[in-house]
Backbone:
């Protein structure tokens, strides 16, 4: 099976704070492929017990057919809240768990043990709860983005710049023009390469300015062309832009189909001429992947 066939198909992952029933309702009702109910950064320490109860209640009353797109971001495994978070929300049968500040693939082994026990306790199909780690929020995690190969339950990987800046003692993570500094672009690249090595989808991090939809569209399109398969969102207005940007354009689809057809008509050739250029088999593979991404294969 190829990587393109195995990639988890969610493009937009919309956060909603777990202590706000209204915002969770909006996220669930949006066009986001995944609604992420947050128990970590979006919830103050004193509000975490109430947020757990709200998230569980929301999951339990949700249509069972819709739960596969209702995920929960728990607190870091190395902190005091993660296991309590899981024990509270797993009876609601979430579609998956986002785990922040992971330090390497070994963290997912620990998480798998927790989830296996809680699935058994709650009548959930063993191994069905999927996992989505934030892999660059710690310095250790940055150095271990290649360690997720074969990690249990893993379907996608994403990166973050804010917690990494805190860990590094940086006062800023962006350049004067608003672009990320070198270390944070490195984090983005390491996430992309690590996800490719693990044969799962790479998901780009948030854009904080939710009003700049044109900038979001440009960035999301660029990231998709670089190999990312989706993006985190912090506001419902970002979802449609992300969904559209992470689908190839009609022009890209047409060109990819031309390349696939040309190779099919010349089965004995390893290299073909196309619009003044010579294309070899990697070009064919990329064209085939693009068509699969577009749902055309």
Residues:
């Amino acid at each position: 099976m190829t990587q393109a066939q195995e990639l988890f198909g969610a493009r937009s992952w919309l956060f909603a704070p777990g202590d706000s029933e209204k915002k969770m309702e909006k996220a669930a009702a949006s066009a986001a492929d995944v609604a992420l109910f947050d128990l970590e950064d979006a919830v103050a320490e004193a509000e975490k017990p109430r947020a757990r109860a709200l998230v569980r209640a929301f999951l339990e009353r949700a249509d069972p057919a819709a739960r596969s797109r209702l995920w929960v971001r728990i607190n870091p495994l190395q902190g005091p809240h993660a296991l309590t978070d899981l024990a509270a929300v797993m009876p609601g049968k979430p579609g998956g768990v986002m785990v922040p500040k992971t330090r390497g693939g070994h963290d997912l082994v620990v998480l798998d043990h927790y989830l296996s026990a809680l699935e058994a306790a709650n009548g959930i199909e063993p191994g069905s709860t999927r996992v989505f780690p934030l892999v660059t929020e710690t310095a250790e995690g940055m150095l271990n983005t290649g360690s997720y190969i074969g990690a249990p339950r893993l379907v996608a990987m994403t990166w973050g710049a804010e917690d990494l800046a805190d860990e590094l003692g940086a006062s800023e993570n962006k350049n004067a023009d608003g672009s990320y500094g070198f270390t944070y672009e490195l984090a983005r690249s390491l996430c992309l390469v690590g996800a490719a090595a693990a044969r799962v989808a790479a998901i780009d991090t948030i854009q904080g300015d939710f009003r700049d939809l044109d900038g979001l569209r440009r960035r999301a399109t660029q990231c998709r062309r670089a190999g990312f398969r989706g993006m985190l969102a912090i506001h419902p207005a970002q979802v449609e832009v992300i969904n559209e940007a992470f689908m190839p354009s009609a022009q890209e689809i047409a060109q990819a189909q031309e390349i696939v057809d040309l190779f099919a008509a010349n089965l004995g050739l390893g290299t073909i001429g196309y619009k003044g250029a010579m294309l070899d088999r990697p070009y064919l593979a990329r064209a085939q992947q693009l068509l699969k991404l577009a749902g055309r294969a």
About this structure: The first strand starts at residue 12 and ends at 17.
